[in-house]
Amino acid sequence: MSRSAPRLPPDSLAFALLEAARIHLAVLAGQSLAEGQISRVESVARPTVQHLVYGSLRAYGRGDFLLARLLSHPLAAEEIRCLLLVALYQLEARRDIAHTVVDQAVRAAAELAAGRFGGLVNGVLRNYLRREAELLALLAAAPLASSQHPDWWLAQLQDAYPADWPAIVAAGNAPPPMALRVNRRRGSRAEYLERLAAEDIAATPDSEAGLALEKPLPVERLPGFAAGLVSVQDPGAQRAAELFDLAPGSRVLDACAAPGGKTAHLLERADLDLLALDLKAARCRRVTDNLDRLGLAATVRVGDCARPDQWWDGRLFDAVLVDAPCTASGVARRNPDVKWLRRAEDVVSFAAAQARILDALWPLVRPGGTLLYATCSLFPAENGEQIARFLARQPLARRRHEEQLLPTAEHDGFYYCLLAKPR
Q1: What domains appear along the chain, each with residue ranges and CATH number?
Q2: More reliable by pLDDT, 164 or 6
Q3: For residues 362 and 397, is the Cβ–Cβ distance under 8 A?
Q4: Labelling 112: which of 61, 298, 404, 415 has CA 20 to 30 A away?
């Protein structure tokens, strides 16, 4: 999509629609949102662009279904197609400003393809408004399209969770909750609740050191965030540190540490000799930045956790956290691009990588020590089936605790299995 300087005011909806369409197209072309496209958008437009990108990607299956019935033939201009998908999402989200959305989408279209598609954009969106009830009835009768998930993904959920998959899909299509973890090194949860109340920010206690916010808000609005009083972390992710029972001074490895949330949580709970490892230097810098903000200390090192010969000093660990690379199917509402970037064969490749990591790190656990295997996935091949295969290879290992968290209104989806090595 052309990146010529737009003539649109950065604070206009037209500008936000245009930028969101460009990012949406980049995702469909294989680019992850983690590559930072939204952060490069002008700051005044960034919140609206983020809302449009994340919302339209969560609803991509829905938008694709609707657009196929609003166009008389497939649209070759992919940038216009993505603009229409973003605009359709905004029409559904803000029916009260429908005419403004149509007008601003037409203005955005004028910036693309030499302005040749303004009439088409106007006609498609107005046609949607006229036929909305009819189209939504068709959508309701098409369960695959209304699920807003790829067919292969939906099939895996239906097979693994025959009773729960509709709730999982509904949770995955909703905006995620926002939760905090109070840094107990710098104050209590009760004290931080008082600080939130003084700022008219509603929150309730959740998990061991967590708080659930009534409404999401920018971290800049959180009192004491820059000073390290609190971190943003889903309650499901907070379970990782809570499942360990570590004595002060324990030697711990966080094998896939970036961005550092679980590393920090472990250190907030106890003084540990902790090595935080990650594959890329840029990701390790994120771990260091998070620890510095929170006033915590660990050894942070670049290394491939599946290749201990490249970084291990030979001393065994009391505990190892393996937050393994995975499909991220349990956190798709936070990362809606993964639904459209992942393929069915990725489940197999992730499972193979996870097995290599487990086999490489298990010998590093001391007798009597523990290894916590964690993913943010819902697919059994990466979770329970993965552990069953590992236990077949390591029959002396013991499964001390196992849980599969399904995504709900309160937390994302995670899998945990705490493995103990006999003395």
Answers
A1: 13-148 (1.10.940.10), 178-232 (3.30.70.1170), 234-420 (3.40.50.150)
A2: 164
A3: yes
A4: 61
By DSSP bridging, strand 210-213 and strand 230-232 are unpaired
Measured CA to CA, the distance from residue 241 to residue 274 in angstroms comes to 13
Q: What's the pTM value of the predicted model, to 2 decimals?
A: 0.90
Residues tagged active-site: 376
Q: Could you tell me if 415 and 377 are in contact, meaning their C-beta atoms sit under 8 angstroms apart?
A: yes
Mean pLDDT calculated for residue range 147-152: 91
pLDDT tens track for 312-362 = 999 999 999 999 999 999 999 999 999 999 999 999 999 999 999 999 999
pLDDT at 6: 53
- Look at residues 365, 352, 417 and name the one whose alpha carbon lies nearest to residue 391: 417
Indicate the pLDDT class of residue 1, thresholds 50, 70 and 90. very low
